[in-house]
Specification:
Helix Hairpins, 8-stranded mixed sheet, 10% strand, Bacterial polysaccharide co-polymerase-like, 720 residues, single chain, alpha/beta, 56% helix, 4 domains
């Protein structure tokens, strides 16, 4: 285990800038390539549905539209001493046209049109379902729209029969003109009388409202004008601050009071105060002096000598006196602290009660004043509203007077009657490419969305973006290999020409350049969860390093579920725990493998407290001895999220390699695992993406094809 300071940059340089949180265009293209089969199937299905729906719409549900243009001009009354008519201003004209568009669809006009024989003889009227009201159907289908910037009103309807829309529109326009002209000739005197009566009543209400507002302002501090805090609100703020201070002080006293409520509770300061007692210090010094004298005498005499026994008796008696003196001092300290806490609690409780009463009274006074102020403001708002209503009513009366003085309210004529439609209005052929484009966008959106919803770590970009640690290498999935791997844990030994073996050699090379050799003497290999391949990475990395000429010790530090014994012959029951309890030497317990320079140390007998055993001095001594005898020590540790052993080990070694299994570990699990290691100041050398699968747009699809083609011809494809 090295103690070199971490003064150099020990992270791998990632290719290119780190990806942002949002997928880049290149990544989106990769997602589309991976999901191209799903996107194609969805597009075929959606495009077929869109095309079929469009054909059914075109073939069985076409719509034919006819429209009529009605010109209307609303006239102002004659000006005084003149017969000239003046048009309405533009804004009033627009409002007038919008009003007339609603009048066309009014129940009075449409009901009269539905009684006409022309509409009752149309196919539209005859084909209406029995459950549908004709008036509601006509209201929904009829379109009445003012043409902006003109005096024209467009009235149109679309039906399935080309013979019906012009008949329906012309009938409705005729009924509308008759209804409007009839209403225009009616006098406005009754409305004017009612409006004047309402104006008189509104004036009386305004007088009464002003009197009430004046009386209410006299009961409010400041005359109803909130110029700042009143005395009541300032007192309330002062009482509230005082109560908050007392509550804060009480919150500090209560834990101390509760702490000393237990007869045995003591703080470090209490123990220090007891130890500082002169009598206790004197007895403690006496015990220490007797112990030193006994140790000096023990160097010359045996432990059973009479002189040694006398010292033992004297030390025991002195220790008993010291323990009694400590107990008395601690009891006196506890009693003193309990009295102080109880006194402070009683004083603060009484003061808080008094401050609370004052605060409640101030709040009550403030609420009453606020209620009056709120009522005053409501009265002001009501007064403003009444004044606005009066002005609107006065404007309405003036308008009625102008209309009463006019001989006619408006001029209406049909500028263009509805004619039989020449072609279909719905659907338009332009909608078909739009529907196909929407089907394509929806298919791509579903494919990309499903990919983005997958929160597992799948690619190297996920390692950089979400886990945010350097990438040491990527190991392909064993199922995608062209060479059969019976034991992927020993791929470098059983299939050295496979791409998996080459991936571990690349990891070895990247690891060598990730930090100085002195900072890689001891390495822990772990993972977020079980089954992620950390044992595979540890074994193959150890083989690769040993094949490079380094003396390697592979240690099974997974004291909960050891795995190295399943892959390395000769790993007996004796192992790491045997060394930690002092029942063997490293040279005797470590097993030599067929690979030169590689030794394997098993986990040893199971222990009920592995974390405590790994955190002890014995493990530090073992690690110091191992790094002196070997160039590199690789420890296979349990998963970070399931046991505390990896965090204990990581704080004692030079670096950690995080194994992340593709499409198994979630991004959150990988981040939590790295965060746990970072919390103990572990040095994460990097991550290994294990079991990366060959998929369309993936990382090994083309690489697997070309890798074996690039091998020497004498090896042959699929041979080791």
């Amino acid at each position: 285990m090295t103690t070199l300071p971490n003064t150099v940059q020990e992270r791998l340089a990632l290719p290119g800038p780190a990806p942002t949180s949002a997928p880049t265009p290149g990544e989106l293209l990769g997602i589309i390539r991976r999901r191209i089969v799903l996107i194609t199937i969805l597009f075929i299905f959606l495009a077929g549905a869109a095309g079929g729906g469009f054909y059914a719409w075109w073939r069985y549900f076409p719509k034919y539209r006819a429209a009529a243009l009605v010109e209307m001009v609303s006239n102002r009354p004659h000006t005084e001493l003149s017969v000239e008519l003046r048009n309405l201003p533009e804004r009033e004209q627009e409002r007038f046209m919008l009003t007339q568009s609603f009048v066309v669809k009014s129940p009075a006009v449409l009901s009269a049109a539905l009684q006409d024989e022309a509409i009752q003889g149309t196919t539209w009227f005859k084909d209406l379902p029995v459950y549908r009201n004709p008036l509601l159907a006509l209201t929904d289908e009829l379109v009445s729209t003012p043409m902006r910037g003109t005096n024209f009103l467009s009235v149109s309807i679309a039906t399935r029969s080309p013979k019906d829309p012009d008949v329906i529109v012309n009938t409705i326009v005729t009924k509308y003109i008759n209804t409007v002209l009839k209403q225009a000739t009616e006098p406005y005197e009754k409305d004017l009388r009612d409006a004047n009566a309402s104006l008189t009543a509104l004036d009386d209400m305004l007088v009464q409202k002003r009197a009430d507002l004046l009386a209410l302002s006299e009961t409010i501090q400041g005359g109803g004008v909130p110029a700042g805090w009143s005395t009541t609100s300032q007192q309330g703020a002062m009482y509230a601050q005082h109560a908050a201070d007392l509550q804060m002080q009480l919150a500090q006293v209560i834990p101390l009071r509760n702490f000393y409520a237990d007869g045995s509770a003591l703080t470090a300061e209490d123990v220090a105060a007891a130890e500082a007692d002169p009598y206790v210090a004197q007895l403690s010094a006496g015990v220490f002096s007797l112990t030193q004298q006994r140790d000096v005498l023990l160097q010359r005499l045996g432990p059973k000598h009479a002189g040694i026994r006398q010292f033992d008796d004297a030390i025991r008696i002195a220790q008993q006196r010291l323990d009694e003196a400590r107990s008395d001092a601690l009891r006196q300290r506890r009693d003193l602290m309990i009295d102080a806490a109880e006194t402070a609690y009683a004083n603060l409780t009484a003061a808080l009660s008094s401050a609370t009463e004052n605060l409640l009274k101030a709040e009550s006074d403030q609420k009453e004043n606020n209620r009056r102020l709120f009522a005053f403001q409501l009265q002001q708002i009501e007064l403003i509203r009444l004044e606005q209503d009066r002005q609107e009513l006065q404007d309405y009366i003036d308008e009625l007077k102008r209309l009463t003085a006019a001989n006619a309210a408006m001029t209406i004529r049909v500028q263009q009657p509805a004619t039989e439609p020449l072609g279909r209005a719905e659907p338009s052929l332009l909608m078909l490419p739009v529907l196909l484009a929407l089907a394509l966008m929806l298919s791509v959106g579903i494919g990309v969305g499903l990919d983005l919803l997958d929160t597992s770590v799948r690619t190297t970009q996920d390692i950089a973006r979400y886990v945010q640690v350097p990438l040491l290498g990527v190991v392909p999935d064993a199922d995608d290999e062209e060479i059969r791997l019976d034991h992927v844990e020993l791929a470098l030994l059983t299939a050295p020409q496979s791409m998996t073996a080459e991936a571990f050699r690349q990891i070895r090379a990247n690891l060598q350049y990730s930090a100085p050799a002195a900072r890689q003497r001891s390495i822990v290999v772990t993972s977020p969860g079980p089954g992620d391949g950390k044992t595979t990475v540890a074994c193959n990395l150890a083989i690769a390093a040993a094949q490079a000429g380094r003396r390697i010790l592979l240690v099974d530090a997974n004291l909960r579920r050891p795995r190295l014994g399943e892959h390395w012959a000769g790993v007996e029951d004796r192992g790491l725990t045997t060394l930690l309890i002092g029942e063997g030497a490293l040279a005797d317990v470590a097993v030599k493998t067929p690979i030169p320079n590689l030794h394997v140390l098993g986990s040893g007998p199971m222990t009920p407290n592995p974390a405590e055993l790994l955190a002890g001095d014995a493990f530090q001594a073992f690690l110091a001895d191992a790094v002196q005898k070997y160039d590199q020590v690789i420890l296979d540790a349990p998963p970070v999220l399931l046991a505390s052993d990896p965090t204990v080990l990581s704080s004692q070694v030079d670096g950690v390699i995080m194994t992340v299994r593709a499409k198994t570990n979630s991004r959150g699990a990988a981040r939590r695992a790295c965060a746990l290691l970072a919390s103990v100041n572990a040095h994460i050398l990097g991550a290994v993406l294990n079991a990366a699968q060959v998929t369309r747009g993936g990382y090994f699809r083309e690489q697997l094809r070309t890798y074996y083609d690039y091998q020497p011809p004498q090896l042959g494809r699929g041979k080791s």
